[in-house]
Specification:
This protein is of the alpha+beta class. It contains 2 helices and 8 strands; from the N terminus they run E-E-E-E-H-E-E-H-E-E. It has one domain (5-129): Pnp Oxidase, Chain A (Roll), CATH 2.30.110.10. Strands 1, 2, 3, 4, 5, 6, 7 and 8 form an 8-stranded antiparallel β-sheet that branches. The radius of gyration is 14 Å and the shape is globular. The N and C termini lie close together (11 Å).
């Protein structure tokens, strides 16, 4: 699935995103994410600072659902994702760490927000409001 450029304003972090996951037994968990980061045309990365339950769920069940909201139009985007890998160093990790430091600085939480990993997800499907976007066949 190619991520449409139209979604980029919703990924700027102005409105916190959510990530819904479930354990292997189907017990749901929804967490608020500091940042959902455009990694490339087919992948998004989510910063992992605190989410121990989300992290445990992703080890048992790689799939999740992300919701981001466009800060201008207030239109929600619903993104089905599957965990591909996590990064603890490298360019993507450093970019996300810098962005997280800026977010923390604006919130007065410099000592609290510490990036542990960047979870990189393959995008499976995207829905904007009631519209479903599909990959061309």
């Amino acid at each position: 699935m190619i991520i449409p450029k139209e979604i980029l304003p919703a990924l700027n972090g102005a409105i916190p995103a959510t990530l819904a996951t479930a354990s292997k037994d189907g017990i749901p968990n929804v967490g608020v994410m500091s940042q959902v980061f455009y990694a490339n045309e087919k992948q998004l990365a989510i910063s992992h600072q605190f989410f121990s339950k989300t992290s445990a769920n992703l080890k048992e069940n790689l799939r999740g659902h992300v919701q981001v909201i466009d800060p201008i139009t207030a239109v929600p985007w619903f993104i089905e994702v599957e965990l591909d890998h996590e990064e603890t160093s490298g360019d993507l990790f450093e970019q996300m760490e810098m962005q997280l430091e800026a977010i923390a600085s604006m919130c007065g939480m410099e000592d609290v927000f510490k990036l542990q990993a960047a979870y990189v997800f393959n995008v499976i499907s995207i829905r904007k409001g009631d519209e479903v976007l599909r990959a061309p066949e």
